[in-house]
Amino acid sequence: FCLSVFICRVQDLKELGDLSPHWDNLRKEVMTRYAGIISSYQETLAEMDKINGCSFKPSCCKAQKSLEFIPINLHTQRMRVTCPKKTDAFYDIITVGAPAAHFQGFKGGGLHRLLSRYEAEKKSFSTAYQCIYYSPEHTAKAQEVLSIMSLLQPLITRLVDQLLQAAHEHSSPGLRDALKHLSDKVRQHSNLSLPSHLSLYSSLPQAAAVHKQLCPLVTRLKDCVMEVVEKAKRAMTFVLLQEAACSIPQGFLLQQRRDIVFSQALAALACGFVMRLYAGMQDKGFLRQLHLVGLVAQFESLLSTYSEEFGMLEDMEVGISDLQRVMFKITEAKSDDLSDLQPLVCGRRDHFTVEVPLPKLVFHTLPEEIKEGKLLRVFPVLFNVGINEQQTIAERFGDISLQERINQKNFETLEAYYKSLSEKVPLECLPCFQTQTDIKELLETLGQNVVAKKKKNVEILWTAGTICRRLNGIRFTSCKSAKDRTSMSVTLEQCALLRDEHQLSKDFFVRALDCMRSPSPLHDQHSLPSTIITIPHRFTGSHACSCKSCSLVFVCLPAGKHSHLLKSDEV
């Protein structure tokens, strides 16, 4: 999808037409740069096409250039608690190595620092290239206008065709509906000088009487839309040409780095969204929340703020933030074949849509709003607390302001999401937990911990994770490679869930934790243990289910791949 963005940009530049010698030379230089990026991306795709079968990228390959767009150790962790007299409980976590440009390295820092430095330098480039300096906000707006223009013309054409069809069929209700929709869209883009007098005909009683009168007006509207689209497209493309000219050469390298990080983050998000969607298909409250508000996607990071991991965190911050531009759309799959159920990414850099096909029978159980193609939002939030020995050095001699800023900013995002959710969806739609702490109280606790000057304050991660589950969110856990620190965090969280939600006795907490962390014969250095663990009734204490046959199933699977499973009779 990143490749298609550059190809579209080249085509837009070609369609600018004749330019003065100065601007034509700049255009050629920019297009040459774009051609280099396109060639590089095509080579990467060719290398990736050589990979056969389902697999994942292990940590030993994180610095391999041909795999730099692929996330490290992307796995799904599902803990299933079963009981014959109760509904099975599922707890999912997506584990993934920090989305970052590992091949390019971190000597100059990560994206946050590099982009800040680049924006300061770009002003001097604009003088050298005789260009107007445009801020990131201005260029983002230009890209947004281009996206709107690409959608406006086919939208107006479709509405006009519906209008004429209704008039041809002498359908007064159909005519009024088509006129209303068309008038709404015209008014929405009234700043583009579109003719709006079509709305005068919405009160005409006889469709047949207006068919002939509509034809010339419709033709005029189509011509006007085409003219406006072409003018706006050329103007915005020229703005982006100036921005690209000022970006040479550092800006292109940074865009590649940003694409790499975003691709890794998006793969993880798509995996988590699909897993959460299937888990909530029978939950009407969840589906209502999904289309009315959207889902929170909470990324837990265990990176230190020292040495190269500081740069990784700067990459990850930008990559997770860029996920705000992603929307999801549920579609009906052509068949139940696995190849027809793969998510598809489309759109431009400023706005991507991930289409998630569902089997026919499953799709038709969804709410009408989702079946009609309503775009579904996600609200990515990132919380980081370094926990290793390098973080000890950072807290004693280094700088932890990056971590503090990230946690504060994302706390505000999470707080705003909850406010929006509580206004649009009854809180009864949210899942029930044994621990009935109010979400507002949990947010207050999180806010206090975010501003507290406490070393290695893992309470931030615990509270953020709890809030995410209470809000039907998607949970992610990351460290450098999603191995040691990640496995420690995930298994501890799972045992805590057993203790808090399923009465695992504190006397057996450590034994259960040790068993989860013990490697099986199939376990390798690249992933968490793949095991099934049975916890007998005697481990759960006197308040456990009376059926005496409750069990826990803990499964770690590479995303999109089935693993062999081992059974254990004892914890």
Automatic annotation (TrEMBL):
InterPro entries found in the cross-reference section: INPP4 (IPR039034)
Domain of life, source organism: Eukaryota
GO cellular component: cytoplasm
Keywords, in A-Z order: Hydrolase, Lipid metabolism
Key word Hydrolase present: yes
GO molecular function, one term: phosphatidylinositol-3,4-bisphosphate 4-phosphatase activity
PANTHER family, per the entry: AGAP000124-PA, INOSITOL POLYPHOSPHATE 4-PHOSPHATASE TYPE II
The name this protein goes by in its record: Inositol polyphosphate-4-phosphatase type II B
Organism: Oreochromis niloticus
Name of the gene this protein is made from: INPP4B
